[in-house]
Amino acid sequence: MSSEPASSASQQSPTSPPSPGSLHLPENRRVRDRSPSPMRGYLIPSPLPTRRTRTFSATVRASEGPVYRGVCKCFCRSKGHGFISPADGGPDIFVHISDIEGEYVPVAGDEVTYKMCTIPPKNEKLQAVEVVITHLAPGTKHETWSGHVVSS
């Protein structure tokens, strides 16, 4: 038997990863600017409230409520959510992909009708449900949920 220590790697203590401030880019690389996102600056609810996770009583309350009008401010199909600007003003309202009715994916400028539902757990924020596109934004390309592109 050998009295030598096992491997030198097993004796080293694990080190924490370097902090982002201590990392330096090579001189020939530059920092990329982030692309502007229409959803930057919005607080997205977490977990995302969907039609599937909403309680039956909340769904009934929303369906019995009044119908509101607004304009789609932004919507990201890949993320599955966006925001609606109410026609009467006020803060923008969150909309989830599961609450959009009809065959078209909303784009900025589409006129919509919707009903309102509160977002748990505190029920302080509002979410648009039963969203229907009433007028497509002119001069834009719209995509159906199946992927077909239509110009308006």
Which descriptors apply to this entry?
single chain; 152 residues; mainly beta; OB fold (Dihydrolipoamide Acetyltransferase, E2P); five-stranded mixed β-barrel; 31% strand; globular; mRNA 3'-UTR binding; CSD_CS; phosphoprotein
List the helices and strands and how they pair.
Blueprint: H1 8-11, H2 56-64, E1 68-76, E2 81-86, E3 93-96, E4 100-101, E5 111-119, E6 125-135, E7 141-143, E8 149-151
Parallel strand pairs: 3-6, 4-6
Antiparallel strand pairs: 1-2, 1-5, 2-3, 5-6, 7-8
Describe this structure in words.
- The structure is a single chain.
- This protein has helices at 8-11, 56-64; strands at residues 68-76, 81-86, 93-96, 100-101, 111-119, 125-135, 141-143, 149-151.
- The termini are far apart.
- It has a domain at 56-151: OB fold (Dihydrolipoamide Acetyltransferase, E2P) (Beta Barrel).
- It has 2 helices and 8 strands.
- By secondary structure, it is mainly beta.
- Helix content is 9%, strand content 31%.
- It has a 5-stranded mixed beta barrel. The protein has a two-stranded antiparallel sheet with strand order 7-8.
- The model has no long low-confidence stretch (mean pLDDT 77).
